[in-house]
Amino acid sequence: MSAATATTSTRAPTTLSAAGEPAASRASGQWRRFVNPLLVLGGVIVGLAILFVIVYPMVSPHSPTEPNFSVETFAPSSWAHPLGTDNFGRDTLTRLAYGGRIDLVIAFAATSVTLVVGGALGLAAGYFGGWFDSLLMRLVDFTLTLPYLVLVIALVAVLGTGAWNIVYAIWLVGWVAYTRIIRAETLVARRLEYVEAARVIGMGEHRIMFRHILPNVVSAALIFAMADMVLNILVSTSLSFLGLGVQPPNPEWGLMVAEARDFFLRDWRLITYPGLAVLVVGAGFGLIGDGLAQALRPRG
Amino acid sequence: MTGYILRRLAYMVPVLFLITLFIFFLVRFVPGDPAAIMLGTRASEENTAELRAYLKLDEPYWVQYGVFMRNLASGDLGDSIRQRRPVTDILMERLPPTLFLVTYAAILSVLITAPLATAAALNRGRWIDQAVRVYALVALAMPAYWIGMMLLQVFAVKMQVFPVAGYGDGFLGHLESLFLPALALALAVSSILIRSLRNSILETLGADYVRTARAKGLNGRSVFVWHVLRNSAMSTATILAVNLAFLIGGTTIVETIFAVPGMGQLLVKAIFDRDYPIIQGMTLAIGVLVLFINLITDISYAILDPRLSYS
After folding, report:
1. In sequence order, what DSSP letters do the residues of A100-167 get, joined into one string?
2. How far away is chain B from the Cα of A93, in angstroms, using its nearest Cα?
3. Nearest residue of B to residue A173 by CA position?
4. ipTM
5. Structural domains of chain A in order of their starting residue, each with its CATH number
6. What is the pTM of this model?
7. What number of CA atoms fall less than 13 Å from residue A171's CA on the CB side?
8. Torsion angle, CA of A153/A154/A158/A162, rounded to 10 degrees?
9. B139-194, pLDDT tens digit by residue?
């Protein structure tokens, strides 16, 4: 999905700027870069979504799984049921909150681990090169040849269905994108003058890698991580939609779409809301990614 | 040119090797006896023992892999547990619908992308540009299964403009039956294409030869069509090829929703049936398909683009 983000950047180190400026205003200048409309809007959307999936289940009096035949099924919106009820009389908003909780946890668990592991491997491959690099790159080529979704589905065939098995499957294949990006950036950063300088004055390999190269290459990975969050939300909800992830009666956005398919003509809302939820949260992460790109790469 | 093609083929070898290794171990990592797994739950003792001997499952992994590769070379991917016939035969039936769907979706995605990206690039910074940007963001985050279900329900079930499921008969039948699934896929892919094409058009607009063409007195439209669009088409094809794997991955979802009898649908079905020979076969076929189309794309560039020397 994302070769587009894998461009290289050669951002100059910021340490040399603003010689006589007071530290405070320099810090606020740094900070101001992050206050761009894209980043703020994306942050607000994602922040509200996280707040919603954490808080709403605590305050909602309804069960997300227990059928409730004492209330009307397919009920219209009301104070008791803001988004109505489903075919079992369950409150749709409550189910959306519980479902979103699972999806966000899956996406975050999947993305954060692949970001760190894949990034570390890419840093090592780009910095040290050699057989380790060659071997890793063949693995990357292989993984990028097979469609991500097909790889995850094939791995779920081995691991078995279930939410955590999707996470494990993504861990196994998701790191390659970060490895490729960070490796490419490291290859560029390794030749920057100040890295040469650090080597000349006798700094250790670890110090050069983590103190001088890492800060330069990490922004590309962070920007990609936001697109990756979108991708992982789409992949995990897709698998649940196919019946390979979260199992009923538990709510999950993809599964909710699948369960509502037979009721579309009777009640279009049941299919629409969970899909919209995926869309809005995904767009939120997309906006954060664009905003980060704007803040971290002024040229881009 | 021959040298380039040979080198390009040589580059495929390690990737192909890893794909075969992946599907080889796929079955062996499922808990239980691989022979029993590959024959399904209803297999007899003798049959299982026979397959164990045939696949040399009592020998070390490298011997097993040798046997696996020898069988693969002769087109033997084992038998489907569910359908009780060779995976290769099933694959041959499943390949055409998927190829048709992927090609169709690729064409539709270009038809969606080209006008939107052009409009955005020519009106840079204005509201059209912003609107296209919002479209790209929404299309990126929009789940294919969701938009697929919506299209199915609205246009096939309710309005009955398109068939609900299947592959249709003849070329026109395929075009009609696969329109909605191809559209669902194309929308997802267009989100990636639009941004790249917009930026590529902007880049070309600033290029020297375009300025020269303008200076020669060619009018804006012909400069745009002959110089800008032609060059951008090339880069769109590249981006499309790069995202081919993504496009093919999406077929698992839309083929399942629209009951298209292709490889993606079979792969998903096979997981519920625990039909491991099918899972192996489809995964391998999809990988080879992506490699093969990428190879064709690269070779076409080498032929079409005289600036690049590949000797």
Report:
1. HHHHHHHHHHHHHHHHHHHHHHHHHHHHH-HHHHHHHHHHHHHHHHS-HHHHHHHHHHHH-SSHHHHH
2. 18
3. B22
4. 0.88
5. 38-65+80-296 (1.10.3720.10)
6. 0.88
7. 14
8. 0
9. 999 999 999 999 998 888 888 888 877 888 888 888 888 999 999 999 999 988 89
